[in-house]
Amino acid sequence: MRNEKRMERLLGYSLVAPAMLLILAIAIWPVIQSFYYSLFDYRLNDPTKSSIHWSYSLDLEGYLQNYPFLKSALKQEMAAADGQTKQTLAQIEQKLAKLDAAIRSNDQVARQYDKVNEVLDNFETPSDELKIAELDKQTAERLTDTVHDVVRALKEMKKAGELQQADKVVGLAEGLEGVVIEPNFVGLKHYKDSFSDMRLWKALWNTTFFTVVSVAIELVLGLGIALLINKAFFGRGLVRATILIPWAIPTAVSALMWKFLYDGQNGIVAHYFETIGLVDRMGDLLTTEAGAMFAVIFADVWKTTPYMALLLLAGLQTIPHSLYEAASIDGATKWQQFTQITLPLLKSSILVALLFRTLDAFRVFDLIYVLTGGGPANSTETISILAYKVMFSQTNFGAGSALAVVVFLCVAIISMIYIKWLGKDLLSDSASVKR
Amino acid sequence: MTKKAGPLFYVFLALFVFFVMFPFLWVLLSSVKPLSELFGDKAFNWLTSHPTLKSYISVFVNYPFLRYLWNSTVVATVTTVYTVFVAAFAAYAIARLEFKGKTVILGLVLAVSMFPQIATLSPIYMFVKKFGLTNSYLGLIIPYTTFALPLSIWLLVTFFRKIPFDLEEAAKMDGATPMQTYFKIILPLAVPGVFTTSILVFIAAWNEFLFALTINTAETYKTVPVGIAMFQGQYTIPWGEISAATVVVTIPLVIMVLLFQRRIVSGLTSGSVKE
């Protein structure tokens, strides 16, 4: 018997393992990485910041595409010049040669150095791993300083007309300026910057406002609809199918559909809203701040109320009818029945529906991205939209990841609050109870 | 259930259905309007006197819309098949076998299903970029695991739990191994649940927007939601084509919903209702 138990346990773990490994690798690990990224000045469009660096390093490709040519160019200039100019050039040449020796003094770097040189001689591109060599802080700073001095000196000589191929020489020297890659660890700076930026607070406010208002309306309407259709009637299946359709179509497509209906010149819904006096002018819906927020919430309510109604309807159907019969025999009014029977028994259904909807609304992206793009004047910009824009429009992955982590933390806090209310209901292992 | 539905009820019901369906109805009507009637004075007329299929033709001729449909079909189908397969084993173990840490695992699954996509976006984007998977089907199928797998496990666990335990006990008595029990008893009984789960996962994968928007940016690998959303040009929005495309993607959904509404509802509400 014990053996059997052990076998069952082993089987259990091995069946769960593949799914758990996938979840760990594709969902949990990325969240941890997002947090890690958020600690760096990580930008995709800047080659020196396009990956994470803990320490100083040298871009050997950039270095070797410039230094050898600069060296020979300097030699040519020296041959053509005389007197003071020649001396200065010789000094520059020597400085750079010493620096080169310092760089090569590390065996590992020297090996990479030669390999990259070989690759470049064959007119090929070295791999990222090969071309980035680790550099100690001292050499890195010396390199930066030296290059800076050399560029200044050469520019002065260029101005004085002492160089024959001034543009080429200065250009090559300037090419050495970007080869030192500094560590881009910034700690919690992105968080500090974000939280002192009004844009984040506005986005948080927009997200909260959108979530609270749309979920509240959806709950009230959804409950009303659930109560309405919680009875036998003709065409029940068809009605159920109808209310599933808004839920089923892609949010991006429904957002575009609403954009058409809200259109300031040709939108039928905008036209009707103007006719009944809900907005002053048709165009106000998508071009004013209040109008855009209203438009977004209205579209969300349209799409998700049916889902809410279905969840609540399922909850209503589990309430035994005998309770209502007993109550009406005791003379309870409809309203009393609703507040004394329906609401208390529906509590856990309502909370679960609220949990799912609140989290969905808080994460909102597709609807707003397509319908308003966060505008006008960032009035509908939610925190997910802001994070996306920072990541992909400004290509600032570090700061964007920090915002993504903020979204994650908010969602975690909201779930914890709900789970506390719900108790262990959500996860209760009904299987073992039945046994 | 004995409450009788009066005429007033049907009026409310009709109004409700009308409000829900109005946007679709309007888009359907607009999709057959000639271009000149989409703008200006005639924009608010319900019916056109010159119905035309020009917008529909344009969608397929001027846009790679068939390609979008194909991309979405491939990505959603593969995601569904593979996640439901992996999830079925895990869900069986969680629902039917006795081992420590089940509640923790289920809690983890639920927690992951609540993860905001944006929080996983940057590392996943870097990952698919590093392995050259941007603009490929795999580049979407891998990230789609993040929401499809927890959803599948969560739904399947509730379905597996509903299968009577007596059958399993009987099989055990007869000397069946757990694997035999799984394939001979549980799986056949779980087919409806697996099917429902598949529908819901398929819809979720078909509708996904954020990953598709960032990872597959090339015209030939766009999915339907991104493809349609990107119909809008810099200055003009081709409402005729957008309406037609919306109708084209909505019709199969309507058919699917009509056919499987019972299953979809049972899937949506399972896990949220304690019976």
TrEMBL record, chain A:
Record-given protein name: ABC transporter permease
Keyword Glycoprotein recorded: no
Any one GO biological process: transmembrane transport
Family label: Belongs to the binding-protein-dependent transport system permease family.
Annotated TM spans: 12-32, 203-229, 241-262, 397-419
Broad class of where this protein is predominantly found: membrane
InterPro entries cross-referenced by the UniProt entry: ABC_transporter_permease, MetI-like, MetI-like_sf
Keywords, comma-separated and alphabetical: Cell membrane, Membrane, Transmembrane, Transmembrane helix, Transport
Cellular component, GO annotation: plasma membrane
Subcellular location: Cell membrane
PROSITE patterns: ABC_TM1
Organism: Geobacillus thermocatenulatus
Lineage, uppermost ranks: Bacteria, Bacillati, Bacillota, Bacilli, Bacillales
Automatic annotation (TrEMBL), chain B:
CDD domains: TM_PBP2 (cd06261)
Bilayer topology annotation: Multi-pass membrane protein
Any Gene Ontology CC annotation: plasma membrane
SUPFAM superfamilies listed in its UniProt record: MetI-like
TM segment ranges: 7-29, 68-92, 104-128, 140-160, 181-206, 242-260
Subcellular location: Cell membrane
Domain of life: Bacteria
Keywords annotated in UniProt: Cell membrane, Membrane, Transmembrane, Transmembrane helix, Transport
Xref: PANTHER family: INNER MEMBRANE ABC TRANSPORTER PERMEASE PROTEIN YCJP (PTHR32243:SF18), MALTOSE TRANSPORT SYSTEM PERMEASE-RELATED (PTHR32243)
Family: Belongs to the binding-protein-dependent transport system permease family.
Name under which the protein is recorded: Sugar ABC transporter permease
Species per Swiss-Prot/TrEMBL record: Geobacillus thermocatenulatus
Lineage: Bacteria, Bacillati, Bacillota, Bacilli, Bacillales
